[in-house]
Amino acid sequence: MINFQNNQNNNYNKRISLAPMIDWTVREFRDFARLFNPYIYLYTEMISTSAILKGDTHHLLHYNKNQHPLVLQLGGSCPEEMAKCAKIAENFAYDEININVGCPSDRVQHNKIGACLMAEPRLVFTMAKAMRQNTDKPITIKHRIGIDTFDSYEFMKNFVETVMEAGIRHFIVHARSAWLKGLSPKENREIPPLRYEYVYQLKSDFPELFIEINGGIDNLAQITKHLSYVDGVMIGRAFYHQPMLMGECMQIFGQKPPSYAEIFDKLMKLLETQTKQGLDIKSSVRHYLGLFHGLDGARIWRQTLSDKKTLTLDKLHLTGEKILQINQLRNF
Questions:
Q1: Are residue 237 and residue 314 in the same domain, yes or no?
Q2: What span, in angstroms and rounded, lies between the C-alpha atoms of 62 and 93?
Q3: Is 77 helix (H, G, I), strand (E, B) or coil?
């Protein structure tokens, strides 16, 4: 087990977060993620202001109370709409509200949402200020280090300096530029080079800010290294595909990681509860494919979950128990 300094209690001053991901950090996966670690901050997928103000607000924003600490990520560019949604988020008891200034997709650019807003720091300032005036909940910013050819450290520093004037003290930095023309969202997560040193420098230049780093981080050793430079680490796809990594992060808070058997038992209880409530588990099991990642029998688990025609709770239970036994992970 890794030894961390100053981790003798649950108030350890570092933070680990599950990144917001469209279609992935939905309610079902957040319930699953919470089984591994009670301390990680969970994020919703990005929800646009228009969806909240014009759609089924309760359906979009309701969640199980065990998901706290929970952050709502908002997508928008109208200060008035962002302020209204901040108040709505407060009414739903979200712990924080995050502004998306990092998504590079063409669709969100068309609606003036995401990374394109880095070109308009005064607008982001105005949005953040309006939101802070309409809620007592903390407002945070998730952004890139730059956009297109505007990828110098000074560009990012100027963005942060402008936005922090609105009283923002927490910035989550995806340590890549967003190339807004010519790359897909997937390519924008892989092709622009990672520049962690920009994020480290930002923390050095603004020690009063809470700086969280994101991008290309997929194991505990990397997390530990980053925490020696910044205040927090946000992880997306690695947590989704290798969820036990969330369990390993318990060490950061001075706690013992859960066992696979403990997580599996909790998952079965969760699914049993959902079944009794009349929910169809076949619609949610895709979020649990990574449970046994890297273990013997993991492929059998994925195949079982993917065969919706024959999937039952009993079959799921038998498959999971078989994998635990194959790997000698069940103590009788």
A1: no
A2: 10
A3: coil
Q: Kindly state whether residues 246 and 264 are assigned to the same domain.
A: no
Tokens of 41: 């901050």
The amino acid present at 201, given as its one-letter code, is Q
Domain containing 156 equals: 15-253
Per-residue pLDDT of 72-124, as tens digits, reads 999 999 999 999 999 999 999 999 999 999 999 888 888 999 999 999 999 99
Question: Do residues 43 and 73 make contact, with C-beta atoms less than 8 angstroms apart?
Answer: yes
- Of the candidates 85, 103, 116, 249, the residue annotated as catalytic is 103
Contact 176, 193 (CB under 8 A): yes
288 and 320 Cβ atoms separated by less than 8 Å: no
Total Cβ atoms within 10 A of residue 116: 20
This prediction has a pTM of: 0.94
Per the CB < 8 A criterion, the answer to whether 199 and 214 are in contact is no
Q: Which whole number is the average pLDDT over 160-167?
A: 99
Specify if 98 maps to a domain.
yes
CA of residue 32 relative to chain centroid, distance: 13
Among 225, 253, 281, give the residue marking a domain's end: 253
CA distance 76 to 86: 11
Q: Is 78 a catalytic residue?
A: no
pLDDT tens by residue, 11-34: 347 999 999 999 999 999 999 999
Q: E strand or H helix at 146, and its extent?
A: strand 139-147
Q: Each residue of 181-222: pLDDT tens digit?
A: 878 888 988 889 999 999 999 999 999 999 999 999 999 999
